[in-house]
Every structure is written in structure tokens, then in C-alpha cells.
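ingest -> validate -> predict -> emit
validate: passed (alphabet ok, no gaps, 382 aa)
predict: started
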Amino acid sequence: MTTRFAPTTPRRPAITILGAGHIGFAMALLLHEAGDYELTVADRDAARLAPVAAMGLATLHIPGDAELAGALQGRFAVLNALPFHCAVKAATLCVQARVHYFDLTEDVQSTQAIRALAATARTVLMPQCGLAPGFIGIVGHDLARRFDALHTLRMRVGALPRYPQGALRYNLTWSTEGLINEYCNPCEAIVDGVRTTVPPLEGLETFALDGVEYEVFNTSGGLGTLTETLAGRARQVDYQSIRYPGHCAILKLLLNDLRLRDRRDLLRDILEAAIPTTDQDVIVVFATASGLREGRLVQDSYSARILGTRVAGHTLSAIQLTTAAGICTALDLVAEGRLPQQGFVGQEAVALADFLANRFGTVYAGQRPERTGLPAAREVAA
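emit:
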């Protein structure tokens, strides 16, 4: 048997998924198994569409902007799994076509531009629906709401190899462009009660979780819109990526000493030529908050350790599974009328309990599929 995502409604809204890479394929697979949506998967690379077509799904080759615009007409929603630099264009076309829009972007400037578009939109614009940004923002907001006065909120997420090798102790598990973007761009934060930015790769700390030692450091984009939501309510809010010890020092050598932050295309080529990809990954989520509750200083934490699984005979890595589950949950909640139906929707609008109760969100809640051959979510504590 394999993981099942059972239908919840008899209707079949028309959905276009933009991008048939690893994450786009995972999104299509989960939604196809659910059975509630009429799916079309579009990509500029016709070869990438073959695995999707093999599942019996409609596909569309979109070599240019005209074909992209045509792919959006008459759809209920678009799920964008293209690189971050395509987000604003896709969102603009969705506003023009009056189609709900969801994406996974970690790029702060793209999200700000999409938010500006939402001022005149008649449909939902909901970027940052993946893991981080995405689920971690939902967790962070839920923790923040538990306090009468919030002092600190610290959120940490890592997509890590289960069997690390080499000095970096890292494998490529998602978009290399997105990874470099996180390592190079300024990081939003709240420091001493003031919204600000802090440098990437700084704030290095180490911690242990379940007997495994990790390091954390600042990276860009993981907070989503939380700094705006919590402005004036918290003293300290930050986001850091989790890696195995030693990773940050090597990144500083590459990006700062060798100045590869100014040659990102070259850095991408180096990383993709030297660091193998892997499906044997693990997602580590760790968030802590402290503050006053009924006059007492208290701390609450949330942690999760999530592995990959098999769905309908296909192996999904942990990053595929969690990222796809995040955006599919957002789609479900809008389709069910449980989120606003117009304008910009941040992750803070999603209640953690609603997310974890969703058929896709159960991936994060620790649901273990029957006889999958690979462990699914586990070791979840809140």
C-alpha cells in the first residue's frame, strides 16, 4: 500500500501547476492522488513533462510568455513551482486572469512585489507556501499567540542529508538558485523590538536535538511576513538555517573570501558539479518562543523531524514531500473557503491546528503511512 490523500469534496476545480521539476512533480502527484482537482502541468522544458504525462495528467509546453498566459485562462488556481525570479511575472498574469495564485518563493523582493499586486486583485495571492517560508511561519505565529508578552521567537529549519559526506556535509535537495539566494541576501529580523535586516551567514550557534549536533546561522527569506505581523509585539524574532557543523565556515570562504556572492551563476555551476543530489534527506524543524504568560516567564517549543516516503509507487524525498504538502494544504484551505478569498494572504492567516488537520498537512503532524517502505513524518513534538 502507499500513501493516500483521500478526496474531500465532489467538485474538481481546474488547477495549473507551473514547473515539472522535483517539487512540481511532487505537487502534481499529491493532488492527483487526492482526486479533487482537474490538473494541468506546464513547463518550458518539454522533456520534464514526460513523467507527469505518464501519470495520466494533462501537460502543456509553455516555451514563451504568450503560452504561459494562455495556460492560466479559466483556471481556479495556479501553483507556481518555477524559480523565484519567475514569481512576479506569474503572479501578474494570474491577477489579470483572475486566478488564485500560490507559490514557494523565498525571495523577499518578489514577495513584496506580489503583495503590491494584491491591492487590486480579485483573487488570492498567497506566496511562500512551502516549508520555510511557509510552514515555519505558521508554527512561529502559533507559538507567538500563546504569550501575553512575547520576548523572543527563534525559528530554525534544515533540509539535510541523512548520511552526510564531505567537508560541507550537505547534499543538494532543492533549487540551487534558491539556496544561493538564501545564503547571499539580507535577512529580515526583529532586534530589540525594531524591524531590521541582519547579514546572512552570521549569528552562528550550535545546538543538539535528539542527540545530533547541528549549527545554525542567518539565512534570507524564511520568516515570510512574520516580522511585519509581530512588529511592536516582540523583542527578538529571527530565522536561521540548520546545517551540520562546519558548513557555515566553508560558505564564508566561498561567498566572502572568494567573492562568489558576486558571481552566483558560477557558484551554482560549482555546487551542482561538485555536490550530489539525494533523496535520502531529513527535514529538521525547531522553533522556540519565550515571554510572559499570566505574569510568569515561560518558554514553548516545537520540533519535528520528517523523512521521505512513497506515494503511489513514487519515492518522494523529505523536501519534496514537505514543500508540496505545504502548498497543497494552502490550496485546499482556500478551496474550502477557510481562508480569505481575495487579496494577499500570508502564512499567519493559517491556524496551525487547521494545517495539521488537513489531509496534506498531516505529513507534518507525524502521520505514518501504512507499509510505504520508507518512514514518513516522525518525532513531532509541540
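The radius of gyration is 20 Å.
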